[in-house]
Design goal:
The protein has 204 residues and is mostly helical. The protein has two domains: 55 residues, Arc Repressor Mutant, subunit A (Orthogonal Bundle), CATH 1.10.10; 145 residues, Tetracycline Repressor, domain 2. It is built from nine helices and no strands. 25% of the residues are buried.
């Protein structure tokens, strides 16, 4: 490995450490309470080092949002490229979304559950990536409609309604659903039931 390649890898690794530390601090302490120096202290670097990568906290949140969406979109693209039957592709995407949230709970909570810090709502890249993820659901629904499986309604409107249901289920599963005194089935059974109810609601 050459010097330039090694430096590029080290730079990527440090950027990743900054984002990981920021996610943890934002979730635990809230966006307003976290400082650039605090993030630097967490990874045992100087604050000036952090500023070589990000100019402020808002830019860090934007990077976290973008990378979170990019990872989710990569997984959805993999499903779409399998050539599955329309309904199988749709249900695989639903399960993928929930699984992604459970595998990346801190990133998921920061992107979807926390109040958006001032300035982040206008960030173009995260918004575009979020729309890409929504459009995946829309395409799946449209294919099921074309196959006569789902009602012929507006696919994007349905995609938004489906996302709302997925988001609710994912958020509850992340946030220790066992603390509620309900007769909870297993996590797998809850996911199966959520997917089944979504499909039933869309069926023709």
């Amino acid at each position: 490995m050459g010097i330039a390649e090694r430096r590029a890898r080290e730079k990527d690794q440090l950027r990743h450490k900054i984002l990981e530390a920021a996610v943890d601090l934002f979730i635990k302490n809230g966006f307003e309470s976290v400082t650039m120096r605090g993030i630097a202290d967490r990874i045992e670097y100087s604050a000036s080092t952090i500023y070589l990568y990000f100019k402020n906290k808002t830019e860090i949140v934007g990077a976290i949002c973008s990378e979170t969406f990019e990872t989710l979109i990569e997984r959805l693209d993999e499903i779409e490229n399998r050539g599955l039957a329309p309904l199988d592709q749709f249900t695989a995407g639903l399960r993928c979304y929930i699984a992604f949230g459970l595998e990346h709970p801190h990133q998921y909570q920061l992107v979807f559950n926390n109040s958006t810090p001032e300035g982040c709502a206008d960030m173009e890249e995260p918004n575009q990536l979020g729309m890409q993820a929504l459009e995946y659901l829309g395409r799946c629904i449209a294919r099921c409609q074309a196959a006569g499986i789902f009602h012929p309604t507006d696919p994007i409107s349905d995609a938004i309604a489906v996302w709302m249901q997925l988001h609710g289920a994912t958020s509850v599963l992340i946030n220790d659903h066992g603390k509620y005194n309900f007769p909870w089935p297993s996590q797998e059974a809850l996911i199966d039931r959520t997917v089944d109810l979504i499909v039933r609601g869309l069926r023709a």
